[in-house]
């Protein structure tokens, strides 16, 4: 038997788990199998379904293999092959002209976390755009509201490590579909349950995770702030708080006590749709079952008051003193512990020595449609897209597509596949995958830093984002030394940080070991056991006045009147088997994303039966789905799994036809899950 060669890699998909991978390679250097690294403390030898099959995507016949120039109309998807030299010359020439005529801020980069790699996600690209003086992109599309909430309350985006969930006696998955989007946390929950822990889920949708729980609490979308205040009401009323912890480590407890008085369980039951006894029970169990951990994920903060909801939920372990305990606390993200020297990597200082001589304007990526159609002084004349597929994933899609169709917009797309966005490119460039380039990875669901070297040969003429922006910098005669740096130089820049969490970690060690635990100090890691919040005051900032609950305007209970015309709340959350729009080329994924879950009551009054084609619409747009009658959603709530490519959906269109550009209360995030629609048989 021939023993295959094994190379190590790291999964770069936008996921809290950031897995350590083993790639089996045959004699010709071709990858034959991907496995989870059994030695990695979080990956623990298994992969999710989509990444176990990632080699299909890697070697897919539709992979982009060489640079192309558009020959058809924008959006039509007709291209001709060109050379890299032609492509880079044309891009550099066009960007130079636009910069001269309209000013460099007429150029807008658009990228998100297609790869979580730091070099290809926020490295040479940032340097290039900073030196160019291009508009800066506010990367809000995913986690801005929740992130800002943690920064305001805790001063740092950090939380309970996944390993400690095994020691919890009560685990609450709050807007967190763990089995679907964070499956490597699951074994720790299984271990806890084996030792007697209870597992509860708070989610408007009964997801796979909800079905696997001891209890699933169906909550009205966007009403989590009210629930948190109701729980706080009961905890304080019954004296279950940790007075000492609160007094020493939190600011604003008195004002919160006042506010919480206004949220007795009876009132909160009406606001959240949960039973008043359940609210009482949940509060008591949470405060008295020790240790108790909350896995809060990003579902909660994708609605209008999402930031305040996260701040109120994050106050719970402060009120009960749960941060003192192994297996207590809360995890929304761990990413803040990776305190790299980002300035050395991204070089924002280059803006001052470039043509602009100042910091460039900031454009919110959640408002791309407005930016492309309405922004002035200067208008956006060039859009450079990489690590993202805005034609599918950005809200108010009709506006985004109208912008992408503009004949005076020069669009460049760096991609693996001809996505919906790629169809609008003037120049389309083939990108390498994470299996083909070097990168460094933080994680937002654990505390291990990882390095991956190329495991496979680049497909066709594909180049990494780092290589492309390095080459463009040369074409544009940017002479700063940083544009000559290698990937290793760039990683050294990142590691050159005074953070204790990174102290002693070297590139050599990362190269040798692949995965290195951050220096989180003595085990077990209890970041806020003695307070130590990173706010200016060093205290957890409750800020009760910002936590008053009002239902989302765009909900059945909002006061805007939209609900009369469009009475159903649509949640377009993640697909268990996919990754945003990344697997949009797969037919099975497309079929899943075409299904609209609707409660049998809502279906009956509309004459909708199972498997019937239906149209969902509102004042922004409309799209076709196949109805799936289901008790997994409450009456008044619909659910669809994101995210299909419009082009593979045969004219039925993507769900973001329906979502709005309205922003969250803080952080400027999108409100994907505050979305009212009407549904009719098609
Ligand atoms: N399989 C898979 N994994 C993924 C992704 C994927 O597309 N597929 N995407 C990745 C990305 S980009 C991210 S940001 C993470 C996100 O990971 P999660 O935050 O876990 O994913 P979501 O599906 O957005 O939301 C989680 C749950 O919140 C629920 N929810 C929606 N609105 C509300 C609400 O108002 N209140 C409450 N309590 N719950 C609500 C949804 O029904 C959903 O079940 O997952 C990452 N992992
Ligand atoms: N309705 C609705 N809309 C949503 C969401 C939702 O839940 N509902 N979720 C939102 C969230 S949380 C997020 S994070 C965004 C995600 O939106 P995006 O960040 O756009 O994520 P993907 O759709 O996965 O697209 C990533 C693209 O990057 C490409 N890519 C991957 N690696 C590389 C690389 O190394 N180089 C280059 N050049 N390209 C690469 C992939 O091929 C893929 O097409 O969507 C948001 N939109
Ligand atoms: Mo995300």
Provide an overview of this structure.
Helix content is 30%, strand content 18%. The protein has 682 residues and is α/β, with parallel strands linked by helices. Strands 5-4-17-16-15-6 form a six-stranded mixed β-sheet, with helices on one face. Helix 9 links the parallel strand 9 and strand 10 (215-217). The N and C termini lie far apart (57 Å). The model has no long low-confidence stretch (mean pLDDT 97). Bound molecules: ligand MGD (2 copies) and molybdenum atom (MO). One ligand MGD binds at residues 14-15, 142, 174-177, 180-181, 202-205, 207, 219, 221-222, 224, 297-300, 303, 571, 573-576, 578-580, 673.
Topology of helices and strands:
Layout: E1 5-10, E2 20-25, E3 31-36, H1 49-52, H2 54-58, E4 68-70, E5 79-81, H3 84-102, E6 107-111, H4 118-122, H5 124-132, E7 136-138, H6 144-154, E8 170-174, H7 178-181, H8 186-194, E9 198-202, H9 208-211, E10 215-217, H10 224-237, H11 243-249, E11 250-251, H12 253-261, H13 265-272, H14 276-288, E12 292-296, H15 306-319, E13 330-331, H16 342-346, H17 350-353, E14 362-364, H18 368-374, E15 382-386, H19 390-393, H20 397-405, E16 410-415, E17 427-430, E18 439-441, E19 448-452, H21 465-475, H22 487-495, H23 507-513, E20 515-517, E21 540-541, H24 562-565, E22 568-574, H25 587-593, E23 595-598, H26 600-605, E24 613-617, E25 622-629, E26 637-642, E27 676-681
Parallel strand pairs: 6-15, 7-14, 8-9, 8-12, 9-10, 11-21, 12-13, 15-16, 16-17, 22-26, 23-25
Antiparallel strand pairs: 1-2, 2-3, 4-5, 4-17, 18-19, 19-20, 22-27, 23-26, 24-25, 24-27
One ligand MGD binds next to β16 and β22.
